[in-house]
Amino acid sequence: MTIAGAVILAAIAGALHYKHRVPRFVAWVLLLVGVGAAATITNLFGGFTGMNLFGVGVFTLIAIITGIFFFEEACKRNGLHRVRTPLIAVVFGVALMSASGSLFTTLQSAVKSGGANVDRAVTNNLNGK
To answer: How far apart are CA 10 and CA 114, in angstroms?
Structure first.
């Protein structure tokens, strides 16, 4: 997914969030926004990519902590919060994609190619092809 796709999803999630509609769906959409914008956000915070805390990468620890919060709030509906849940969803998406490992690299490649295909389909549809 490109940053343009992440911005479009963020606009949709922002509108739904502003109108107090489907908070769990907003959290899932913002998770996808975090996944799509991970490269851009990671470049802004580039110093954290190589940091380790007791031999474990910072993004891996952040992914674990926010993953637990995301599961409890967005999946199990335990304590959905108006500000915290969407923020956790975005941070979880970014941390998930920035954590090292072949699984995350493969997932990032799949999301990027899938987003490119969606962008191409939307562009072709808008151009009347």
So the answer is: 17
- Report CA 80 to chain centroid distance, whole Å: 18
| Cα–Cα dist 95/17, whole Å | 22
Q: What is the pLDDT of residue 52?
A: 66
Which residues partner with 57 through β-bridges?
A: 52
CA distances (Å), origin 90, targets 20, 54, 125, 128 = 18, 25, 29, 34
> What is the pLDDT, as a whole number, of residue 102?
46
Residues near 6 by Cβ (< 8 Å), separated by ≥ 6? 32, 33, 36, 37, 40
Helix H or strand E encompassing 53: strand 52-53
DSSP category for residue 99 = S
How far apart are the C-alpha atoms of 36 and 86, rounded to whole Å?
A: 15
Point out the residues of the chain with pLDDT beneath 70: 1-2, 46-56, 100-107, 129
Residue linked to tokens 């915290």:
84
